[in-house]
Amino acid sequence: MVIQTDTYQRIVDSAKDLMYARSYADVGVAAICDHARVKKGSFYHFFTSKQELTLAVLDTYYADYKNNIINIAFSSTLKPMERLATFNKLVIEFQQDIYSQTGHIYGCPFGNLATEMATQDEAIRQKIGHLFTKLQQLLHNTLQEAMDNGDIEPIDPDATARALLAYIEGTMMLAKTHNDPTVLQQLLPAGLQIRIPTTN
Amino acid sequence: MVIQTDTYQRIVDSAKDLMYARSYADVGVAAICDHARVKKGSFYHFFTSKQELTLAVLDTYYADYKNNIINIAFSSTLKPMERLATFNKLVIEFQQDIYSQTGHIYGCPFGNLATEMATQDEAIRQKIGHLFTKLQQLLHNTLQEAMDNGDIEPIDPDATARALLAYIEGTMMLAKTHNDPTVLQQLLPAGLQIRIPTTN
DNA sequence: GCTTGACTTGACCGAACGGTCAACTATAAT
DNA sequence: ATTATAGTTGACCGTTCGGTCAAGTCAAGC
C-alpha cells in the first residue's frame, strides 16, 4: 500500500511554520496537531517522536530555502559575485516580508534551531551542521569561480566561505534581536567585502 | 531590615549556569531551585516570574563578561587593534575551557537567549538589544581610536563595529553548531580585517 | 522580651508536556 | 467479497510546567 493522505506533509508544514515563528520548546506536539488539523494519535502514526519530526522539518526548511533563494541566486547566468549580491537581496526581501506580516524578524531557521538545540540533541545538531557545510560549499564554489575569473584577488576560498556564512548568520541574529529589518539592509551587502587571505 | 541571605544570588547563579548550558525553556524553575538548594516558594519570594529572573540573569552574564573579558581586553595600555586581538584570544580561551570541561561549545549567552526568546518575550529581547548596543559602542570606540591613530585606513566605524559584532556572534553560532572550538580559532582572528567603507 | 518583617517550607493548583493505546474506519490488493 | 493494512480517533498515562499560599522560622530593632 502506498501513502494516500497528505497528513504527513500537513504535520511537517505546520511544525515548520510554528517552530520558525517561535521555537522548538515553545511549540508542543498538541499545538502542531491543532494547526495541522490532526489528532495526536495520528501524529504518532507518522512520527515516533518530536525529534524525528524536527529532523523532517529541517529537510523541508532546506527544500524551501533551495527553491526560493538558492536556485535563483546561484544561477549560472549570473557572474559569481552577482550571485552573492542576489542572495543578499533575496534574504533581505524574505525577512522583510515576514516582518511586514508579523511585526517580527524571525532570522535563520537553521541558526535558530541550532542555537536552541545544539547542546541538547546531538542528531539535530549534526543535521544542521551538515546543512551549514552544504551552504559553505556553495559559497566556496562561488568564491572560487570569482577568483578563477579574476573578479576578486586571490584569497583562501574555504576560510572566506566560512567567514561569510558566519557573517550572514550573525547579521540575521542581530536583526532578530533588534527586531529591525534595516540591520540586514545595512550589514548584509558589506559581507561581499570579506576576504580571508591565504596563509603561507 | 536589610538583605541577610545569599539566596537571591544563589538562584541567579544557578539559573545563569543552567540556562547557558541548556536553554531558557529546557531549564525549569524547579531545576533552578534544586541546583540553588532553594525551595520553590522561596524562589517566588525573590522573583515574581521566570522572566524577571531571566532579566536578572542577563545582568549577571554581562557583569561576568565585563570582569573576565572586556576589562582585560579593552585596557588602555593596549593599542586599539591589539585590544580586539586580545578580546578574540580571551573569547577563544573561554569557549575552549568550557569545551574541555563539558564536551560542548556553549556559544554566546546573549546570542543564545536572544535567538530563543526574541519573538516570544519583548522585555528579554530589548534587554539583550541594549547589551548588544553597548558592545557595539565599545567596538566603535576602539575602531575610531585606531582610525585616529592612523593604525587603520578611514572606514565607517559605526557600520564596521556592527559588522564585527555580527561576525563574532555568527562565528560563535557556527562553532556551537559544529561543536568544534577550532572554528573559533580559524575564523575569529580574521574578523579584525573587516572594514566597511564610508558611503559618500 | 516583644514585635516586625524578611525569609523558608512543603503542600498544592490547573494546565500543558511528550507519548501510548485499543478500537475504529476506510481503502487497496487479492 | 474478503482480507490486510494504512490511517484516524479520543481517551488516557505519568510527569513536569510556572506559579500560589498558609503556616512557620528566625533575626534585627525597639
Identify the CATH architecture of chain A.
Answer: Orthogonal Bundle
Instruction: Give me the oligomer status.
Output: homodimer
Characterize the largest beta sheet of chain A: strand count, sense, and whether it forms a barrel. Answer: none
Beta-strand residue fraction of chain A: under 5%
SSE order of chain A: HHHHHHHHH
Q: Write the CATH homologous superfamily of chain A.
A: Tetracycline Repressor, domain 2
Morphology call of chain A: elongated
Give the low-confidence spans of chain A: none
Computed CA radius of gyration of chain A, to the nearest angstrom = 19 Å
What is the CATH class name of chain A? Mainly Alpha
Alpha-beta content class of chain A: mainly alpha
CATH T-level fold name of chain A: Tetracycline Repressor, domain 2
Q: Give me the number of helical elements of chain A.
A: 9
The separation of the N and C termini of chain A measures 60 Å
Largest interchain contact: A-B, 48 and 48 residues
Total count of domains of chain A:
1
Average pLDDT number of chain A: 96
The helix fraction of chain A, in percent, is over 70%
Structure summary, number of beta strands of chain A: 0
